Amino acid sequence: MTTLSDPPTQQFRLSMLVYDTRYRSLTFQALAALLLALSIFYLGSNLISNLRAAGLNISFEFLGAPAGYDINQTLVEYDSQSSHARAAVVGVLNTLVVAVLACVTATIFGVLAGVLRLSNNWLVSKLMAFYVEIFRNIPVLIWIIIIFTIMTAVLPAPSAFRGAEPDASMVMGSFAFTNRGIYTPAPVWGPGSMVVVLTFVASIVAIIAYRKYTTKLLYDTGRLLPVFWPSIALFFLPTILMFFIMGKPVTLDVPELKGFNFQGGIKVGGPLIALWFALSIYTGAFIAENVRAGIQAVSKGQTEAAAALGLRSGRIMSLVILPQALRVIIPPLISQYLNITKNSSLAIAVGYADITATLGGITLNQTGRAIECVLLLMLFYLTISLCISAFMNVYNNAIKLKER
Amino acid sequence: MSEQHAHDVAFVRTEFVPESPPPGVASGPVKWMRENLFASPANSVLTLLSIYAIYLILSPTLPWILNGVWTASSLSECREILNGTSGACFAVLTERWPQLLYGFKYPADEYWRPTLAFVLLFIAAAPVLFFDLPRKLLIFTGLYPFLAFWLIWGGTILTPLLALAGCVVGGLVYQRLVASNFAAGFFGGIVAALVVWTLGGVLIPEGASDNALLPAVPSRDLGGFMLNMMLGVTCVSLSLPIGIALALGRQSSMPLIKWICVVFIEFIRGVPLITLLFVASVMLSYFFPPESTVDLFLRVVIMITMFSSAYIAEVIRGGLAALPRGQYEAADSLGLDYAQAMRLIILPQALKISIPGIVNVAVGLFKDTTLVSVISMFDLVGMIRGPILASTEWNGVYWELLGFAAALFFVVCYGISQYSQWLERRLATDHR
Q1: Which of A98, A116, A223, A267 has the smallest number of Cβ neighbours within 10 A?
Q2: Does A32 touch chain B if contact means CB atoms closer than 8 Å?
Q3: Is the ipTM of this complex over 0.95?
Q4: Which residues of chain A lie closer than 8 angstroms to B289, CB-CB?
Q5: Which residues contact B19 (CB under 8 A, 6 or more apart)?
Q6: How far is B164 from chain A, CA to nearest CA, in Å?
Q7: Could you tell me the mean pLDDT of each successive run of 10 residues in chain A, 404 residues long?
Q8: For chain B, how many structural domains are there in total?
């Protein structure tokens, strides 16, 4: 029987901090910590002495002071007597509005262009390739400026709509495209309109329930009920019926030319349109490439296998190709959404009052509180992007291939 | 047997029918059109719609471009020449050409300097971009930054020479020490370069730039497309080594270093470039010593470099993660230390995988250099929106100018992406 003796314990020596790989990482980290602390101290002391020399301090009290400037497109109540904090909130909401709008339309453009680029039709696929290359290779700032110029320099002034023989006319009698913005009809919610809205919500719930029921029926008994047409009918019929039963409670407020400008309806300002549309077509080109890559990533054997099982082409797409393609498409799609949110900060170039233009632009210039404003601005964007990446992690974990 | 067969049936063909060409509908352009444009009714509708869309785009723009006026001194004169017909006023491009390229403050007598620097850029970039060229050309690539600095900013030649001397000394020290230990060589090289720079900084006389061969041009006089090019090229080349360091740091097993890199990368990637440019224009000067004057160009370069190095770090991290685990283990089993394993085994492969991503970041960054117009630097977009459109002669010439800017960026960015695709095919070593 052999006895194992302990390996000779080495005394710790200082030289091991350099020559022994077990301890060397400690040395490096200590060095890094030292360097970090030194640079923070150096930058901090510079900051303090510079601020003292300029007679400034760091304080966020300016947020409570009256802003003193007007914002032409606001979602919440705001006037020039409101505080800087309120202006920042208006900016945050405007950023979110343009980001959400642009995400929706960019997805539509991108999916359309990506699918059409794979079309058998030579002309269509070349046209879509042209669209993608043109928009991906030209800075988004130039696109924003181009569309803003179309909005302000090409569209007619409201006065062009006046007179018996006007130079411009409203599209379908209710949409006015002017150089001050686009005017669209606004719904007016009369008494009893709540019932109509509730009916609509109820019919959506009914559609979801019906689809679940048909799937369950299919799996249990093998009977296949029609889904598409009943869903369409459920979507429209109850709401329209209720609309007439309640005596047309919802009416449209159509914009009309009064004096020098249009009154009534909803006004969507030129800067918002420019930013929204430019971000959509620019990011749409990137999304188109993601969609194309995703569909091409599904191997042709999958289509053929599904066809061999006897599935129809629509079901091949919805049951076999799309679930696999989406796994590839969605993660880059979400980071494109993040890009849209960050690129929406270019609003400042066309004067759309997003958070960068209010807090980082006018508030910063009026109060001179550069450090505070830029810090708050960064904090906002960081929060948004951390939220989106957290969501993305959850999603990626959810769709991860379950391997045995 | 054939005899008997011949008697049984009424007719037997004894010679081959001469081959006839396929019918017109199944060959040539008609077949191609039937297959590619009119394969099905829906397809035909799509084709007609596309042709209509092309017609809608081309019918106003084509005469507008072809009818363009190239020589006029103002918009009103241009309109007189056009006399009511539709036509572009490209005269603004010819008249303001130097302003679009160099900005409105760069001294006109010195335009040859940035032009020469631009031409030399191609020679300097060639050996990096195309491996087949003789390796000796890399010496010029190494000299180019100092030469370009001297050409564009002018002033005393001592400054770039001193910078070059510092780099050379640092490189020599590194080569001396790296044989024994990479860390010693690396840090020794940096320290040696710093020593040379501080010593030399004392030696350069105060008024050295006054009567220099090339008159000094301050950074605030730079502008136009030159500014976009300078920012793009400088920031991409600076951010590559920083990005590699950050990517390696993020993969590191040392928690502190890993966390520093993660926080830096995620912070930079989480905020838009505009906010970083705000930092450069209004906030960064608070962090420098009170007496120092770091000009706006340098501050913008610092912030854009930080921005792009975070993105490049993420691309390279993807490349590192894509390498099979066996490569790391093989390097370890050969007895290589960390620096050797990275330099000789891991990074060459990881960088090759990341080339398309790095080029994407570079193209994106080049496009993003237009954002500096927001912090009132007069790059190409800033020049167009500022001095040119605001001038009385050219107030209202939007499309020619914006179209020119768009075309210029398209040519550069499309060229870079085509190069990257060529490089990808060139570097593909897997057998397919």
Answers
A1: A223
A2: yes
A3: no
A4: 46
A5: none
A6: 27
A7: 63 75 82 92 90 82 81 78 86 91 94 88 90 92 91 80 70 75 80 83 92 89 83 86 80 75 77 91 94 89 92 83 86 90 90 86 84 90 90 82 62
A8: 2
